[in-house]
Amino acid sequence: YLDRVTFHSDDVRSGVPLHDLDAWLLDLPDPWEAIPRLLPSLRPGGSIATYTPTYNQLERTVRLFQQLQLSDLRAEEHLVRGLHVGEGGTRPEFEMLGHTGFLASARRIP
Fold this sequence. Notes:
GO terms for molecular function: tRNA (adenine(58)-N1)-methyltransferase activity. The protein is an alpha+beta fold.
């Protein structure tokens, strides 16, 4: 897959000189600052996804997706429950970390 995937690590809040990208994955405390500047670099049908740790950040991000009239909006909470794996004895752990983070995603429509 490395011939089809390019990873960039930079502060994208001021925009990027890239274009016709398939997707953006953002792990920022303020993705709403970067999203308007990144949308022009997405191809039509391209996706943008964000990870945020709080409800307030998730809400602000999804509201921006709505204002920008993006499609296929999704907002999800992801929970983690470990497993003890053993031959003939796989079972879930008794304790679960109740919250790990929120993912929000949307697609740029043509």
